[in-house]
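User: hey, got a sec? need Glycosyltransferase folded
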Amino acid sequence: MKKKYVILIPLILASFIHLLNPVGYPEVFFDEGIYMRRAMNTIDTGNPQEGYLYDHPYFGQILLAGVLQITNYPPDTSTEPGSLQNLYLIPRLFMGLIAVLNTFLVYLIAKEKFNCNVALLSSTLFAVMPYTWVFNRILLDSMLLPFLLASILLAIHFAKPQSKMWIAPLSGIFLGLAIFTKVPAFVFIPLVIWLVFQKRRKYSDMLVWIIPVLLIPMLWPANSIVLNQFDLWIKDVLWQTQRSNSILEIIGSFLIIDPVLFVLGMTGIAYSAITRNKFVLIWFVPFVAFLSLIGFKQYFHWIPIIPILCIGASIWLLDIPKKIRYLQSKTIHLIILASLVVFGLTSTILVITHDISLNQFEALSYVIENQEENSTILASPVYSWILYDVFGVDNVPKDYAMILFGPVNTEKITVIADAHFMLDQNRGEKLVKAYNETQSIIVFEGKANDFDTRIYPYTNMRMNIEGFSIDIRTGEWGKQ
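Assistant: Yep! Here you go:
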């Protein structure tokens, strides 16, 4: 195969993995429902700012709403589980296409900064290793990644002697959009500004680059000022920084999902420290330091550094023959590399080919078909936006937690008690009451229960808790 066509290998693999079963695996996560709800609100009202909550900037819902609008969303939908499941098809396909684009950008970055061999191996690892399924979720971290990668790629191009000046502000625009999608992307400013500075070592280049980086995200607080809600913006931004948990929790989650990539990637980081590879270290260290110190962390927060873990892993894997004598045989070395890729691909296929979200839509179908008049439905955002946006059901809070901040206006309630609801009961007594004062009507068991989650790669099912048991409960709410 000619060298110019080798990029097709990771692209074909990424397309297969991300577009094969976009809705069936992974299950639909709580936060995905939030971003779908906000995108639908943007379509319905033309206002990307939903209510008074300023937890994240709103470019993510603008982007998602644009995709939904282009596809004439929502499609005609019945109450059949398969039809309800298709409501997540367009957004999940969009996320899959973003993942394929990210694979291409990882290849280009590694090729420009290192060489074709590093580019091919790193983009292939990015495409096939089990962590890649996380990119299919409708999450801001996945949405910001192509903007971040494009900014880095353009900065690398700008550092070349014959590059054009317009590349610098364009790189800044892309990083500005990444930050406007999710604020923690600002920690990559040192990396990109260092790349930009390589060209002429002039502060004027940095100034041209940083103007859009700062101005674009400023639209978020500026909008809150226009709406006379700047105090709410300050309050919510500070609240986001004050929530915290240990980084050890998400290291554990990474090891559950993809222990091989974790070990390969961290070895690559250590190797980069030994060889003083500034590009790898400036990408990795500031983000992990930020992640360790500030904010509530979840396993998908690793997303922005997965590309550099793959690149770092590829660098040391390709350098091994220089250090270990018996690996100087090209045949042995290629067998080892091919084995890693085959292992990753096989592990990923073993989990992504299962439909573990179907029971979520079977539960939703049951609730829609058996809804009672004058009954409040308490459900996570995975379901709530479908109930009121698609089917026009009344008495559906945006989120079951809304009952903590206001009254329930009906005597009867229906609770979709999934795993997330059960975990959230410690948020307030009313959620405990909603569970205790209702009776189980039917339980929908998910296919995720069919696997021994102690055995790899089925350990990945542990990160799909909302695809396990879903208990539909009804009862009288009583006096508040």
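Quick note: The mean pLDDT is 93. Let me know if you need anything else on Glycosyltransferase.
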